[in-house]
Design goal:
This protein is an alpha/beta fold. The chain is built from 13 helices and eleven strands. Helix content is 44%, strand content 16%. It is globular and about 65 Å long. 51% of the residues are buried.
Amino acid sequence: MEIIDKLRDAARAKPRRLVLPEGDDLRTVKAASFMARERLAVPILLGDADAIRSLAGREQVSLTGVEVVDPKTDSRRPRFAGLYHELRKHKGVDEAEADRLMGDPLFFGTMMLHVDEVDGFLSGAAHATADTIRPALQVIKPAPGVAAISSFFIMVMPDKRLGDGGIILMADCAINIDPAPRKLALIGISTARMAKALCGLEPRVAFLSFSTMGSAQHELVDRVKEAVRIAKERAPELALDGEMQADAALVPEIGQRKAPNSRVAGRANVLVFPDLQSANIGYKLVQRLAGAEAIGPILQGFAKPVNDLSRGASVDDIVNLGAVTCLQADPSLR
C-alpha cells in the first residue's frame, strides 16, 4: 500500500536504533529480523538472551543485525537503577525497588531511550497499554508545552474515495478515556498536524458526534461543540469543523446536505471521536468489517518516540509501527 511503502522508505533512508522490550514474543522477533534485513531500523531485542536465541533458532528466524540484550545481567543495570532512583525517589522509590525494576525489559528499555542509547521504544504486543506507557510517563514525560499524551491510527481504506485516497486518521483510540472539551480540541489539533507532517496530507478535521451542526440537543453534543470552538480558536489556520455525524464527515453528498457551509463535511481525512469507547470500537469495526489496514496506535506528545502496539498486532503491524517510531526521532514528527 502506498502510504506504508512511503513510511518504510522514509525510515530506510535513515535507520534508527529501536528497542523492542518483548524479545520473548515470536511476532516481535520476526519483526526485528525483517527490520534488520530491510534496513528499516537497528533493532534491539530485550529479554532472556538464551531464550530469545533459542526461540529464533527453533523458528528459523535470522538474528543477523539484531542486538539481543538481557536486562537482568547487562552491565548498565546498576547505572540505570541509579538514574531511575534519582528520578523517582520523591515518589518513594528506593534503591532496591529501582534495581528490581531495571530487570524488567519495559523499564530497562525506557532508560535506554532516556539516555539516548536508542532513538525509539516500541512495545505492547504482549503487554497492556498501561504497562507499556507507565515507564515512559514516569521517565520520558510529555514534550515541553504538551498538555496531554494522545494517540491516533492511520487507517488505509480499500475504498480510495474516502479521506485522502483512502487514508484517514482516527483519534484518540488508545489513551484518553473521556477527554474534556479542551483536551479533545488539543487531540484534534495534534492529529491534524501529524497528518501533515507524517502523511503529507492537508488535514480536514471532523469532530464526530451523533448530531450534525445542531440536529440533536444533548450535553454530550455540547461537549463536542465546545471542543470545536476551542480548536478553532487555538488553531484558526486548520480546516476543522463539527459537531458532525460520521456519514456527514465522509460522504460528499450527505455532507453537502447536512452541513452545506462546511469545508470539512464530506471530505474529512481526520476523524476525532468524542471518547475512547467510540474511538476504539470505531477503528476496530473499520479494520475488521471494511478490511482496512490499521497503523498504530501512534502516540503523540512524548518528548521522545514511544509507541504502544495492540496486543492483536501482526508481524507487519510491528514492522509498520516500528518504521513510524523511527521516523518520530525527528522532533517535528512527535
